[in-house]
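input
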Amino acid sequence: MEGMEEKGFETNSAILIGIVLTQPVVSHKSYGETFYCFSIGVDRKSGYRDMIQIIVSERLIWNVELGTGSLVEVLGQIRTYNEEQDGRNKLNVVVFAREFKLITEDPFPAHENKINLEGFICKKPIGRISPLGREICDIMLAVNRMYNKSDYIPCIAWGRNAGYAANLAVGTKIIITGRIQSREYRKRDEEGNVETKIAYEVSILKLE
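output
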């Protein structure tokens, strides 16, 4: 796909190939343009399927027969925004499509999930040990985009990267390569009911 040299792509780019899981529904309108939201499933080599939310303009899909099960390629950027749910702020993590393609060639290409980000650590990294005894570190990365806006993207580092990241100061500039992943977790409300929710984050494969 072309357009990678456009300003902003150096600091925030996402390339995804996956299966459409839900039909597009209207997300919002901006300057007379309608945007749609739907989710795609991108399979890992392990067999686990990440479910990723996509936002796409009507002008990219108006002539595309987009049904569940379709294989698509998305080139875009990670965007985040806060949404109020049950009186609390929830951080939504989506991929905003800049280019979009329905894949019809045979044989189909393998699923792909590649994220490149360049930004600044905006909260103190939190190092911890996973239930399986693996060293991990949570990072909140502020990535600038046009019009003086920023996206605040949750990231997670593993192993040696986690040990390194845990000692980085707020304001440190880092460049990462990884994948966007979905993770189910359970949360108990004030009445004791347990609800399954989905968190989205970028799993770091390479950090500089």
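quick obs: The CA atoms of residues 99 and 174 lie 26 Å apart.
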